[in-house]
Amino acid sequence: MTAALPCLALALLCVLCAAAEVPVQPGFDTQKFAGKWHFAATVSNCSVYLKMKDGMKSAIATISFTPEGNLAMKLAWPLPDRCQRLELLFQRSGQAGHYMAQEKKELRVMETDYSHYAIVHETQHSKQQPNTMLQLLTREQDVSPQLLQKFEELIPTVGLTKAMLAVLPKSDQCTGAIS
């Protein structure tokens, strides 16, 4: 299980297409983006994620930014017997909205309205096939059918398929696990 945690974390947050082709939110505003987000839906080619996706529930993240512009994320996701917590730090990579962690993980905020939703693309580069993930984050646990449809339309644009999609059911299990 410990070995699977990095991939699982990517599965909650986790390329067939080149990274340069993935857009970043124009004029990304870190102050507006900071705060609490719920994982409403996710899609990934990560093998660990694909094995676990049908049993996953909505995770929660608190995002903040360092004075240097780096993205700090505190994650909590429900497991059958507990809340798993993880803290990640992504270094700003050029423009705001594009971040790297240990030169192997890349995170791009593709689109957000800051107050309702965000679509985040994450890639973990490895010696084999890179793991790619697209995530729909929402400020509240509820997600509208229109927003979910918009998210689903983006799935093939990043080289993934709808069969890899998990719409995550609500969970209050980890609500108090992060601040």
Structure commentary:
There is one protein chain. An eight-stranded antiparallel barrel has the order 1-2-3-4-5-6-7-8. Helices cover 16% and strands 39% of the residues. The relative contact order is 0.25. It has helices spanning 5-12, 30-33, 47-52, 145-154, and strands spanning 35-44, 60-65, 71-78, 83-93, 95-101, 105-112, 117-124, 131-138, 165-167. The chain is an alpha+beta fold and 179 residues long. The chain has a single domain (29-167), classed as Beta Barrel (Lipocalin).
Keywords:
alpha+beta, 179 residues, 4 helices, eight-stranded antiparallel barrel
Q: Which second-level CATH architecture applies?
A: Beta Barrel
> What spatial form do the alpha-carbon principal axes imply?
globular
- Compressed to H and E, one letter per element, the order equals HHEHEEEEEEEHE
Broad structural category:
alpha+beta
Head-to-tail CA distance between termini: 25 Å
Strand content: 35-45%
What's the alpha carbon Rg, rounded to whole Å?
Answer: 15 Å
For the record, what CATH class applies? Mainly Beta
Give the topology.
Blueprint: H1 5-12, H2 30-33, E1 35-44, H3 47-52, E2 60-65, E3 71-78, E4 83-93, E5 95-101, E6 105-112, E7 117-124, E8 131-138, H4 145-154, E9 165-167
Antiparallel strand pairs: 1-2, 1-8, 1-9, 2-3, 3-4, 4-5, 5-6, 6-7, 7-8
